[in-house]
Amino acid sequence: MASTSPLPSAILVHEYVTGGGWPAPDLPPGLAQEGLAILRALLADLRVWGRFPVVTTRDRRLLTTGLVADRVVDLYAEVYPTALLELARDCGAALVVAPEGGGALEHLSSLVLDAGVCLLGSLPSAVAVAADKWECHRRFAKAGLPAPETACVAPGAAAAAAARLGYPVVVKPLGGAGCDGVGLATNDAFLGAALRQPALRGAASLLVQRYVEGTAASVSLLVADGHSTALSLNGQRVRAGIPFAYDGGVASLSHPRRAEACELAQKAVALVPGLRGYVGVDLVLGEETCWLIEINPRPTTSYVGLRRVIDLNMAAAIWHACRDGSLPAAVAVPPPAAFGKRWANDS
């Protein structure tokens, strides 16, 4: 559905971890590297598109980090989010990248919408659903979509759940960012180690999921008004352990289950009304089936590699999906491209 609101004076691109929102004394290296790579890629595409001036934010702890935008505003936790909201109102449109864990993305999306700013991303209600891995699993199961058998239990009941599901199992928080708190347990001893991860301390409940063999993958999609276009199947470099480790992958993965994975991802996002713009769906490509894992309601690291090879300006496509409710009719399968979490400029 096309928007009738006035056009913005600029587009604000805000990455939470490196853009002034992270409250802890030190930035988390993994999340910061990933966030900065995504931010640089978005800024580069918006610069090429050239329709609007581009404004971005930078944590004052990263003053030596160069960002290519028409305006770079240095923020810090003491003035956040008041200064961010003032900046968003001045621009009129905002694209927010933040972890779903802890409600960061949902909260920022709500602030932007409540301020009357055009949000170039998923609605807060959709972010809340996607951030809840148990709710996503429930929706997958209700719709009859393939997903690993999963139990939501108190930490003290994790051993019983693992015994019922059968080792190996994956332990993970209900929310969270990336691989934080995700661990592989092959027996009771490893289960205990997985449960002692910092991200799971004090958790009232967590997920115990049957481990499925296969290729870790994701599907990148553009979503608008309940419809979606699959852009790419991507391979993920994931090391299973305690915790799991993720370090990028390959955009436009050539795989015999490409069409099946893309169709499954489109069915998954259709279960969450309010998803908009760039959305990633994580899967495992098994020998006999594709398994749904979770939905990421924001630009993911795969964007970094995909933008280099796809015949589409994805930042402009995000604008049209969120502002006009329009999607590209078809996207040619691009050649493979490696991507990773790193500080280097990806423009």
Mean pLDDT: 94
Total helical elements: 10
For the record, the CATH architecture of the largest domain stands as 2-Layer Sandwich
What sort of overall outline do the alpha carbons produce when their principal axes are compared? globular
Q: Return the string of H and E elements.
A: EHEEHEHEHHEHEEHEEEEHEEHHE
Instruction: Return the CATH topology of the largest domain.
Output: D-amino Acid Aminotransferase, Chain A, domain 1
The separation of the N and C termini measures 31 Å
Unreliable stretches (pLDDT < 50, length at least 5) are 343-347
Taking the sheet with the most strands, its summary is: 6 strands, antiparallel
The CATH homologous superfamily of the largest domain is called ATP-grasp fold, B domain
Structural class per helix/strand content? alpha/beta
Domain module count: 3
Strand order of the largest sheet: 14-13-10-11-12-15
* Computed CA radius of gyration, to the nearest angstrom: 19 Å
CATH class of the largest domain: Alpha Beta
The counted number of beta strands is 15
Approximate helicity band: 25-40%
Q: How much beta, percentage-wise?
A: 25-35%
Outline of this structure?
With 347 residues, the chain is an alpha/beta fold. β4 (92-97), α3 and β5 form a beta-alpha-beta unit. It is built from ten helices and 15 strands.
What can you see in these coordinates?
This protein is an alpha/beta fold and 347 residues long. It has three domains: 121 residues, 3-Layer(aba) Sandwich (Rossmann fold); 62 residues, ATP-grasp fold, A domain (Dna Ligase, domain 1, 2-Layer Sandwich); 125 residues, ATP-grasp fold, B domain (D-amino Acid Aminotransferase, Chain A, domain 1, 2-Layer Sandwich). 30% of the residues lie in helices and 26% in strands. It is built from ten helices and 15 strands. The strands form three sheets. A six-stranded antiparallel sheet has the order 14-13-10-11-12-15. The longest helix is centred in the N-terminal third of the chain and has 21 residues. The two termini are 31 Å apart. 50% of the residues are buried. The C terminus is likely disordered.
